[in-house]
């Protein structure tokens, strides 16, 4: 019976290592997977940050900061703050006029250290520009976002407002519109980058879930 030589064993090990590397390149450690995973987890972290800020009591030039949101388009998002000097408390304002929480000039930009500024400091602003090939869909009815709000609204805003960290979801065509019915249960975000998919869900209590297909 012929024994394997050291050269033959080395060749087998080398070929196995190459095949394993090729396999891993297209699975867990692919650039597409890593980019999409990091993007979605960063967004989830930013959404949690907004909720934390909404439970605080901040002022901008003596005006109450009533809402903290993220404005989405199909190729980027940024964080912003809604401030008001209204005699109404924030909860009453959101219930009676939710559209007033939409992004509108002058926009107060939100920064990760808690600063609120009209002139954003780029390294600190909650902001991301999508890589070419990344697509996002948003839905209330489908975990796979088959009923995508972006089909009707080129801009969408997700807002947490005082005093309990409640949620608003607004969409804009020519004007801003409230998208959350009274009986809503979940907001679904679906992301695709190249051939990779990942999903983010926010339920009524504000919990965030990130899942693979």
CATH homology superfamily name:
minor pseudopilin epsh domain
Stretches where pLDDT falls below 50 for ≥5 residues? 22-27
Distance between the termini: 50 Å
Structural domain tally = 1
Instruction: Return the CATH class.
Output: Alpha Beta
Helix-strand topology string: HHEEEHEEEEEEEEEE
Number of helices: 3
Structural class: alpha+beta
Query: Do you know the CATH topology?
Result: minor pseudopilin epsh fold
How large is the share of residues in beta strands? 25-35%
Q: What fraction, in percent, of the residue positions are helical?
A: 10-25%
Can you tell me about this structure?
- A hairpin with a 4-residue loop joins strand 12 and strand 13.
- It is globular and about 80 Å long.
- Strands 1, 2, 3, 4, 5, 6, 8, 9 and 10 form a nine-stranded antiparallel sheet that branches. Strands 7-11-12-13 form a four-stranded antiparallel sheet, covered by helices on one side.
- With 213 residues, the chain is an alpha+beta fold.
- The protein contains three helices and 13 strands; from the N terminus they run H-H-E-E-E-H-E-E-E-E-E-E-E-E-E-E.
- Residues 22-27 have low confidence and may be disordered.
- It has helices at 6-25, 31-54, 90-96, and strands at residues 59-60, 63-72, 76-84, 108-110, 116-117, 127-129, 134-139, 155-161, 166-172, 176-178, 186-193, 196-203, 208-211.
- Helix content is 24%, strand content 34%.
- The protein has a single domain (31-211), classed as minor pseudopilin epsh fold (3-Layer(bab) Sandwich).
Write a compact overview of the structure shown.
The chain is of the alpha+beta class. It is built from three helices and 13 strands.
